[in-house]
Each structure stands twice: as structure tokens, then as C-alpha cells.
Write a structure and sequence with these properties.
Distance between the termini: 87 Å
Number of domains: 2
Number of helices: 16
Helix content: 25-40%
């Protein structure tokens, strides 16, 4: 059973507790970012619970599958024509929306979706509670309902030309063989006595009638219609089911414009699925051919004033989770000294320890530094926006990440070069193990078996890229080890991943390529493609 609810006489107490939730969240976000948690206080607040009016419009549409039977074999509801079937199915749609079983099934489907389908995009679903079978009996198109068709053999005459005389009524005389004469013993010739000298006699098959009764239609001139199995009719069966097309609509006339703005800020669907509002689905109504499922959302919105380190900051809080949707971006101004320290760090290693300590006094800066030692800049940005929301501007968040990345690159500049050297040596070992051992010949043999010998250069090239990846990995490992020593303990996080390889990654591409060519040059035997290149330059060492 679907759960229908009533509008409460008074909103629940939790609706009026959102200022305290917002104050708690604000204190947690600002704590460690130039402000202590006890420096954030809720000074005053005014909370109102607004009604959000919405509805789900549901239409029933028929789906038909057509089959046919020979003869007059109706089942279900018999209709005169296909058009009558379509009209009746459309009329049934209007009747079905008022059916209790149908409404119950629709309500159950709606309620099972996240947020009771509040804010859901248009969707459709099959309806199990509605089914109808229609029949339309039509005359057979071949016999037009007569059950028989004119015989094609005798052209509906009932008689066919005699097969003995080909419809002539006479055949060749069997005595004179059509000559009309008989020969006597003395050799003279006289007219044939059998055919009187005509050379032809009456056909014994048709007795000179020229025609015989048609064996196909037995002289009736008509044959049974095989298309309709001699019934004169075809029966068309329309097996009909219904599906529902549901569309959510926010009632912007009954809902206050400022409340609509809050909903759009929170996300209309997320308002229900994330529990920002208490969603009630009221008793359904039928209007014409549509079923209307009304929704009422109870959305608390609070105008508040916070005191942060003695300064007043007005804000707007919305939703049962107490989300702050409007406030001055405090993080920008509070953490600006930390970002300034990152800017100085990005320009060189001077006073690195003091600048790192200055930057790491701010929680957000520590989070960005920790994130960049394990993840990409885009990942860190997304995480920052989720955690601090509107307390930090997009521009400031991107600037913090950019300068933090540059600072980390500057702090581990030397170790990255060492990592480049170590990684290039490791890549050279990999190349030597391939070119200077039977490994390459084994790979080439496998490619010959698969008729891919012409692509051996691709295999060699892939090895170069693998060696480049090994060199980049060396750069990152050395950088990670250096940063672990430089950055304070409160920046260390237990995450998988390595910091950026910086510009050294592009140097690694060149150094690994040179090492790759060098090893291939000194290998025995040399690679075929390398021999061809040397020959083009007139070198055949």
C-alpha cells in the first residue's frame, strides 16, 4: 500500500533547530582556518517553515500487440474496427486512472523512488493492474466473406476442355490414322469406312462434347477459400496493456519566489533525496484523463547572524541539515596569509621552513597540500568545494591549489632531478634487458607466428614509453620522500598516490628516449628499423 500523508498542524521541532546545525557546521569549517571553534557564535535567528507545492501528473497510455486468427474466433471485447479499438482504449485510460487498484499501484511505484519521486525527471513504467483484450472480426479480403473463390482452373464455368481431344470434340481416326482412306489387298485405296473418309472420329472421352466436368471444383465453378479456412472471416486480436507516463511539476504560483530560489540552490530533486525538506504525498486526485499526486514539502529557512571572532556576519540557512546557502566567503580573508606564504614558497627555497610553518597554520591550506601529495589538482578542487561550499570563492580555491602545487614543486626540485637520474638508469636497465638479451628475439618470434612481424617497431616503441613511465615513477617517489620530510606531521595523510612529477616528467621523455636509442644502437643484433635509418644516413656500422 502506498503511504498517503496529511499536512501536520504544526511543523516538527527539528525544523526550528537548523540555526544551531548551521552554527555547528560553520564552526567546524572555520576551526583551524584562523578562527577557533569557540569564536563562532549564533547571535540571532528567525526561522520559518515554508510550504513547497508540487505535483506528479500521471497519464495512462495503451500499448498494443496485434495477432490474427483465421475464422470468426473473437475473444475479449469485440469491436467493429481498429479505430473503434483505439477509441475504446483511450476511453479506458480515463476510466483506469480512477480505479483504486491502479491508483494503489501507481502510488507504490512513485513512493519507491528516491525522495518519493519529488523532483524526478519524466519517467514511465508498466502498469500490471490494467489489461484488456479486443477482437475485430473482418471479412476475408480474398473471398470477401463468401468462403469460396471462383475456380481458376475452369474460370468458374464448372467445365474444363477435354484432355482427350484438347477441346475439339473429335480425335484422329484409329483405323486410317487420319488419312481418310483404307488400302485393299490389291493395293487400291478406298474411303475409310470408320470415319467415312474424314480422317477424324468422335472423341470417346467427352463423347464429342468438347468439355468435361472440372475435377478441381467438381463442376461447381468455385473452390473453398484457403486464406480464411472456409470461414469467410479473419479475427484480429489486440492484446492491450497500459503504461504510465509521470511528470513532476513544481507549482511556482503557490510557492513563494524566494523559496523557489532556495530550492534551486539546494537542487529540487536533492531537496527530497538528501532530506533537506520533509516531503508529504497527499491524497491523489483525478482531473480529466490525468491522475494528480499532490506533494507538499516543508522547507525550513532561517535568517541568522553569526559572530566570528567578534565580527558580525549575516547568513541564510536552509533545509533540515542546516546548510548555509548565503554568507560572506570568510575562508578567503581568513586564510589569505597562508596562501601568501605559498606564493613566496613557489618563488624559491628561501626561508622554506618558516614559510611552510606559516602556510600550514591554516587547515584548508594543509588539506590542499596533503591532497596534492597524493591526488590531481582537479580531485583536490572538487573535494575543497564540497567541504567548504560557499565559504570559499571559486577563484580563491583555484588560486590556493595552483600556488600549493607550485610550492610543492619548488620544495622538491632537487629530489625530482635525483629521481630523474635514478629513473633514467632504471629505464636503461629495462631497455638493456630487452635489446641485449634473447627477449626481443622471443617477442619477434611470437609476432612472426601471429603474422604481426611488421609491427615490431610498435613493440619497441611501447618499451620506450614503459621506460619513460618508470623514470616518471622514480621522480615522483623521490619527490614524495622529500616532501614527507619537509611538510609537518599534520599535513601527512594515509592516502595512496604520489605528487606531481613536474617539468622533470618531460625531461624524462627525452632522456629515456636517448637511452633507448643508445641501447638499441649497441645491441647485437641491431633492430631492423634502426639499421634502415643508419643506411639512409650512409652509416652501416
Amino acid at each position: 500500500m502506498s503511504r498517503l500523508e496529511q499536512l501536520p498542524a504544526q511543523p516538527a521541532e527539528e525544523h526550528f533547530q537548523i540555526p544551531q546545525k548551521g552554527a555547528r557546521d560553520l564552526a567546524n569549517m572555520l576551526d583551524g582556518n584562523g578562527v577557533k571553534i569557540d569564536q563562532v557564535r549564533l547571535v540571532k535567528h528567525d526561522t520559518q517553515v515554508h510550504l513547497v507545492h508540487a505535483q506528479m501528473l500521471v497519464e495512462l497510455k495503451p500499448d498494443m500487440t496485434v495477432s490474427q486468427r483465421s475464422g470468426n474466433q473473437p475473444s475479449g471485447k469485440t469491436m467493429p474496427t481498429k479505430e473503434a479499438v483505439m477509441a475504446d482504449a483511450a476511453a479506458q485510460s480515463k476510466t483506469l486512472v480512477a480505479d483504486d487498484n491502479v491508483q494503489r499501484e501507481i502510488g507504490e511505484v512513485i513512493d519507491k523512488k528516491p525522495g518519493k519521486s519529488f523532483g524526478e525527471k519524466p519517467f514511465r513504467f508498466k502498469l500490471a493492474a490494467a489489461h484488456q483484450e479486443y477482437s475485430v472480426v473482418d471479412k476475408c479480403l480474398k473471398c470477401n466473406g463468401a468462403t469460396t473463390n471462383p475456380c481458376g482452373t475452369c474460370n468458374a464455368s464448372g467445365h474444363a476442355p477435354c484432355t482427350g481431344c484438347a477441346g475439339q470434340g473429335a480425335t484422329q481416326c484409329a483405323v486410317c490414322y487420319g488419312t481418310g482412306q483404307q488400302q485393299r489387298a490389291d493395293g487400291s485405296r478406298v474411303p475409310c469406312m470408320k470415319c467415312s473418309g474424314s480422317g477424324r472420329g468422335v472423341c470417346m472421352t467427352c463423347q464429342g462434347m468438347k468439355t468435361l466436368r472440372c475435377v478441381v471444383c467438381n463442376g461447381q465453378g468455385r473452390t473453398s477459400c484457403t486464406e480464411c479456412d472456409r470461414s469467410g472471416h479473419w479475427t484480429y486480436i489486440y492484446d492491450t496493456h497500459w503504461h504510465c507516463e509521470a511528470q513532476f511539476e513544481l507549482d511556482r504560483k503557490q510557492t513563494l519566489p524566494e523559496v523557489v530560489e532556495v530550492l534551486e540552490h539546494l537542487g529540487i530533486q536533492k531537496t527530497a533525496t538528501e532530506g533537506h525538506a520533509e516531503i508529504l504525498r497527499l491524497v491523489s486526485e483525478v482531473e480529466g484523463d490525468k491522475l494528480i499526486l499532490p506533494f507538499i514539502g516543508l522547507l525550513p529557512v532561517s535568517q541568522v547572524e553569526f559572530s566570528v571572532a567578534g565580527k558580525s556576519h549575516p547568513a541564510v540557512i536552509a533545509g533540515l541539515h542546516g546548510r548555509i546557502i548565503e554568507i560572506e566567503p570568510l575562508i578567503d580573508s581568513l586564510t589569505k596569509p597562508g596562501v601568501s606564504a605559498l606564493v613566496k614558497l613557489s618563488k624559491g627555497p628561501m626561508a622554506a621552513a618558516a614559510l611552510v610553518a606559516s602556510a600550514c597554520r591554516f587547515k584548508m591550506v594543509r588539506q590542499v597540500l596533503a591532497g596534492l601529495t597524493h591526488n590531481s589538482k582537479s580531485h583536490v578542487y572538487q573535494k575543497l568545494r564540497r567541504e567548504y561550499q560557499i565559504l570559499v570563492t571559486d577563484k580563491f580555491a583555484k588560486a590556493t591549489i595552483r600556488y600549493a602545487d607550485l610550492a610543492l614543486l619548488a620544495l622538491a626540485e632537487g629530489p625530482r632531478w635525483k629521481g630523474l637520474a635514478a629513473g633514467s638508469i632504471a629505464a636503461g636497465g629495462l631497455y638493456a634487458a630487452y635489446f641485449m638479451t634473447p627477449a626481443r628475439e622471443a617477442v619477434r618470434g611470437l609476432m612472426v607466428q601471429q603474422q604481426l612481424e611488421q609491427h615490431i617497431l610498435a613493440a619497441d616503441f611501447a618499451l620506450w614509453l614503459l621506460g619513460w613511465g618508470l623514470a616518471v615513477l622514480g621522480i615522483k617517489i623521490f619527490a614524495a620522500a622529500a616532501l614527507k620530510k619537509i611538510l609537518p606531521q599534520n599535513v601527512q595523510v594515509k592516502e595512496h598516490g604520489l605528487p606531481s612529477a613536474g617539468k622533470q616528467a618531460w625531461y624524462a621523455l627525452g632522456t629515456s628516449g636517448l637511452v633507448w636509442l643508445g641501447v638499441a644502437f649497441f645491441a647485437t643484433p641491431r633492430a631492423e628499423w634502426l639499421v634502415n635509418i643508419l643506411r639512409k644516413f650512409g652509416l652501416s656500422l
